[in-house]
Amino acid sequence: MRILIVDDEPAMHESYRQCFTTSRSDGNETALSAMAAELFGDDDEEVPADSAADEPVITFDCTHKMQGLDAVAAIQASLESGERYSVAFIDVRMPPGIDGKETAKRIRALDPDINLVIVTGYSDFSPLDISRAAGPADKIFYIAKPFQAEEVIQTATALGHRWQVDQELEHARGLLAEKIGQLEEQQHELAANESRAIHMANHDSLTEAPNRLAFLRMLGQAVKGDHCFAMAMMDLDRFKLVNDTLGHLAGDELIRMVCQILQQNCPEGGFVARLGGDEFAMLMQVTGEDEAVMLCERLLKACTISFKVLGHSVQGGASIGLMVVAPDTIRDPIDVMRRADLALNEAKRQGRGIVRVFDESMDESIRFRRQIEGGLSEAIAKGELKLVFQPIVAREKLEITGFEALVRWCSPEYGMVSPGMFIPIAEESNLIHELGDWVIDEAVKTLQTWPGQYVSVNFSPRQFRRHNFVAHVVERVTHAGVDPNRFQIEITETAIFDNVERAAEILFKLRQMGFRIALDDFGTGYSSLYNIRRFALDCLKIDRSFVDGMGRERESAAIVHSIIHLGRALGMEVVAEGVETEAQLQALRLAGCSHVQGYYLARPMDAEDALLLAEKGVLHDVAEPALEASNGTHG
Ligand code: C2E
Ligand code: CA
Ligand code: CA
C-alpha cells in the first residue's frame, strides 16, 4: 500500500516514520489486523487474537516529500508507473512552496481516487474551502497536529483498505462494462442474424422477391381487408425448353428478368412474389374484374418480348390465372390461391399466352375428376368397363381388316363415361396400367372369335414408358395363344418423341416378333414426317381433325395428301380416322388412302355385333358407286 506524505518540517516526517515502523517492528501487525478486522468486520468474530496473524496484513510503503509540487510530481509518476498511492497526508502550510490546499487541489486533478488527509495545527484552514477545491468530501479527511500514532495508522489503514476495495470495485466495474459491451455486441449480431433469417425465410434467393410464405401472409391480410383485390398467378410458357436447351443458368437469368419486369409493371401498391420454379403471383387492388383483366393483360404483354439471355435470344411468353375477390367473400387465402391456380391451368390448356379468370366450372371439373379417379379404381373390379369395336375398312372393297378396341365405362353413378374423360385421369395415376392390362386381355379374348381380323389397341404414353413394356405385352398376348400379327399397338407421337432412342428400339423388337404398330393421331404432334422413317411402323392413322378439315381448309387437305404420300412411299398402310361423310370418303379414296375408319362406315359396336360383322368380312351398307368411282380413278 503506497502512502504519500508531504510536510515541510523534517521532524514531522520523523514522526510519521516512527508511526509506521513501530506498527510493523514491534509485532504490532497483530494489533493492526485486529484493528482492520474491527474496522471492516470479520467473518468470524470468535477468532482469537493470536490467530489474527493469518489475516492479510496491510504493509505501508511511504514516500516522503517536503514540498507540495514534489508531491504532485510523485503522484504524476505513480499514475504513469501504475503503482498508485492510496492515501496522501498533506500539511497545510509548506513555505516556500504551494500550500496544502493547492497541493490537494492539484493532486485531486490528477488522481480522482486518492484519499487526501489534511494534517493541520489549530484552525488555520477552512475544511469547506479545501473540500471544494479537492473534493469529493468523502475522500478528504482531517487530522489535527500533533497527532497520535494510532490516529495516523488507523486513518491510513482504513483509507488504504477502502482505496483497495474501491480499486477492486473499479476493476470489477471495468470487467462488467466490458462484458456488457460484449453482450451488446452479441445482441446486435443476434438481431442482425435474426433479421437475415427472417429475410431469408420470406424472400426468394434467386430474385430477392418475396417468396410463397410472404405471399401467403399478404394474401391472408388481403382476404381480411375491405377492398376488392385480384390475385394473379403467372407461369412462363416454354420455360422448361429454355432450361433444357440453354441450361439452368439461362433459366435463372430469365426468371430474374421476368421478375423485374413484373415488379416494374405491377400497379402501385401491388405485390409480386416468386412462388417457385417459373411461377409468380401478384396481388393488386382493383375495382373489379375488368380492371384486373386489363392489368394482367398489360403484365403479359410486358413479358411477351424477346429476351437476351446469356447471349441467346429467347421469346418470352406467359399465361395468367386470375382470381378476383370481393370483400367478405372468401376468407381462406389457400382457397384463393387454389382458384387462381385452376384458372392458370385452364389458361395453359387453352393454348397459353392468355389471361383466364376463375369461374366455378373449373372447380366443378376438378371435383368431378377426383370422383372419377376414386370410382375408376373400383370400376375394373366391379366389371363396369367394357370394350367396343370400330371397324377399320380397306378402301377398295370395304373389306374389314381389323377393329379398333375402344374402352367404355358404364358407371351406375355417372352413366356412360367417355374414355376421353377418364383415360387422362387414369394416366395421371397408376390406374392406367391396371386398366391397360384389362383392355389387352379383353381385346385378345374377343379377337379369338373373329375369322382373321386384327384388333387395334390404344396405348397411352405412360403405358409405353412402363419399364419392361415389351415383355409385358408379349407375355399377355402370346400367353393367350394369339398370333402377334393380329394384334396392333396404337401409340401416339408423344409417346415416341419422349425418348426417341428407346422408342425406336422397342418398336423394332415388337415388330420383329410380328406385332403390328400404328402411329395414332398422326399429324397432331410435332414429329416431322421425315423422322418417321426411323421407326418400324405398319400404319399411320391420320388424325380426325385433318379429315374433318379436308373439305374446308387447304392446309388440312395438304397434310392429308402428304401423309398418304409418305405412308405409301414407306410401304405403310394409311388409315383415315373420323370419316363422317360420303364426300370425305370419296376424297380420301381419290387421294389414295388405303384404309378408312369413321361413323360414316360404322360406329364403335359391342363385341357381339363386331363378331357378326367380322364373319361377314365386308361392309355392304356403303354405296357401291362410290367404290367404283374411286376404283376407276386409281385404276
Ligand atoms: P382415338 O384413339 O383417336 O380413338 C378414336 C376416337 O374417335 C374414339 O373415341 C372413337 O369413338 C371416335 N370416332 C370414331 N369414328 C368417329 C367419327 O366418325 N367421328 C367422330 N367425331 N369420332 C369418331 P373414344 O372411343 O371416345 O375414344 C377417345 C380416345 O380415348 C381415343 O382416341 C383413345 O385415345 C382413348 N382410348 C379409348 N380406348 C382406350 C384404351 O383402351 N386405352 C387407351 N390407352 N386409350 C383409349
Ligand atoms: Ca386410336
Ligand atoms: Ca386416333
Provide key terms for this protein.
635 residues, alpha/beta, Rossmann fold, Alpha-Beta Plaits, TIM Barrel, 3 domains, eight-stranded mixed β-barrel, binds ligand C2E, binds calcium ion
Describe this structure in words.
It is a single chain. The chain is an alpha/beta fold. The protein has 3 domains: about 1-170, Rossmann fold (3-Layer(aba) Sandwich); about 210-360, Alpha-Beta Plaits (2-Layer Sandwich), CATH 3.30.70.270; about 385-615, EAL domain (TIM Barrel, Alpha-Beta Barrel), CATH 3.20.20. A hairpin with a 2-residue loop joins strand 7 and strand 8. The longest helix is centred in the first third of the chain and has 54 residues, at about 150-200. The radius of gyration is 51 Å and the shape is rod-shaped. The protein binds ligand C2E and calcium ion (2 copies). Ligand C2E binds next to strand 14, helix 13 and strand 18. One calcium ion binds next to loops.
